[in-house]
Design brief:
Blueprint: E1 3-7, H1 14-27, E2 32-35, H2 46-51, E3 59-62, E4 65-68, H3 70-80, H4 91-116, H5 127-149, H6 163-177, H7 186-196, H8 199-208
Parallel strand pairs: 1-2
Antiparallel strand pairs: 1-3, 3-4
Bound molecules: glutathione.
Length: about 220
């Protein structure tokens, strides 16, 4: 199967990007990747609109099938490549991991979109207010993740890495970019530092040219 990911460094496409690296490590099955530079507006080019009319990353093209949405992409990879352990094998544990991932994708992430792109959710006069409220809401979600990390388990969903952990690293980076003090979430920061050193994750951070401590 030919696998081709369209991604932008540091965005939510980091989640399927690391998942593809897990597939590569487990199966020796490599993938192709194409960088779409969102800050240069490459998501709006006619060429990319053919790939995803919604103008977003990630997109995974698997043979001739185009898949969007982080949750769908990583679920598909898990089904196709079970030995990559993208999700736990146990169905209840997998459901818990999917639940956490869905919350991140449908609640935490869209809140941050209001920080990064407030103009899409307000008129010019209320842009700063929308951003300020979104930052405060985003902080409450970071605190939720901090509470999970302070329990002392190895990963967010227990003893196995899942896509939720990869998303959590992205959120910690985004916090720093938004000038939120990463050190306010000490257990979460320590956990993210530890995960950033895992070879699979480190490989993709290096490939994307991103680092964890964005706030410094
Ligand atoms: N729910 C979507 C979220 C995708 C999304 O928001 N992607 C952002 C990057 S993190 C994007 O492509 N933004 C481009 C833009 O908004 O112009 C998914 O899971 O794929």
């Amino acid at each position: 199967m030919n696998l081709h990911l369209y991604f932008c460094p540091g965005t939510c496409s980091f989640v399927p990007h690391v998942s593809l690296e897990l597939v590569k490590q487990a199966y020796g099955h490599d993938f192709k990747s194409t960088l779409i530079n969102l800050s240069k507006g490459e998501q709006f080019t006619p060429e990319y609109q053919q790939i995803n009319a919604k103008g977003q990353v990630p997109v995974l093209v698997a043979d001739n099938n185009s898949l969007t949405q982080v949750v769908a992409i990583v679920s598909y990879l898990h089904e196709q490549f079970p030995k990559a352990n993208i999700f736990p094998a146990d169905s209840l544990q997998k459901a818990h991991a999917l639940s956490m991932l869905a919350w991140m994708n449908n609640t935490v992430h869209p809140t941050f979109t209001r920080v990064f792109r407030p103009e899409r959710f307000s008129d010019e006069a209320s842009k700063d207010a929308v951003k300020a409220v979104a930052i405060e809401t985003f902080k409450t979600y970071l605190a939720d993740i901090e509470a999970i990390c302070s329990k002392g388990q190895a990963f967010i969903c227990g003893d196995q890495l899942t896509p939720a952990d990869i998303y959590a690293i992205a959120f910690m980076r985004w916090a720093g970019l938004a000038k939120i003090d990463q050190k306010s979430y000490p257990h979460y920061l320590q956990y993210a530092e530890r995960l950033s050193e895992m070879p699979t994750i480190k490989n993709i951070m290096t490939k994307e040219g991103i680092f964890l401590k964005t706030g410094q």
